[in-house]
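Q: Could you fold this chain for me?
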Amino acid sequence: MPIHDQGYRHFGGTREARGRGWLVIATAGLKSALAKRPVVFLLLVAWIPFAYQAIKFYLTTTFGQLQALATTAQTFREFLEGQDTFIFFLTIYIGTGLIANDRRANALQIYLAKPLTRAEYVAGKAAALMAFLMFITFVPGILLLFVQILLAGSFAFVSKNLFLFPAITVYSVLECTLATFGMLALSSMSKSRRFVGIMFAGLILFTKAIQGMFWLLTRSSAASLISPTASLSRVGDTIFRVTPRYDTPMVASLLVVIVLIVLSIVVLERRVRGVEVVA
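A: Sure. Below is the predicted structure, expressed as structure tokens.
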């Protein structure tokens, strides 16, 4: 029988530029999530508040007697705050298995055995979740501003509230970053996505309950520093220039949010490894 030459041959495929591995992971994560009907359902439901606000904008600009419902900076603050529930459920449904599933299948060794750094792996996972969260916060928030301009037929409102563009952007990025890295850190600590979901929900609800108890005992607004969601709300009130609901210094609340994000990154740095290290 003939013997074919098995010598050296030039690679016939295409070479991807270094540093783009995260994009492959992010794309795979997006496709995997969108293939699940509950995710698509949550995304659609999360846009109902946008439709409600758009209708309200139309009514207030068309009928002068409804000026009591006129658009203000508080309107956009309340809209983004109303999206918290959808962020909570989407983060749990999409984020719990992002790293936990790979740990359960021992896939981290395969990922990190390739020319892929831990930073690229985490960035890809974070980008997948971040994209969904920004889609229900930043995107509708900015679109609402353009809807207001179109329906009002002038730039009067926007010219008086130019800070809303950076406010929506900064608050959305801050909130989504906290949720994303917090969830990824928890997901890296377990092989069970259900347990990760319980931990995430428990931390949110438990800290909120402790905050309420501390406030009842001390009547001090410093209790808001106990809860990540309360600290984020305090920062959001300042960003949107509305009356703060807590007397806690904004810098202190912002520091809590930043520290939580940094701690999450530290946990990811220690837990995302190709070989499990037992201390």
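A (continued): Residues 21-271 form one domain.
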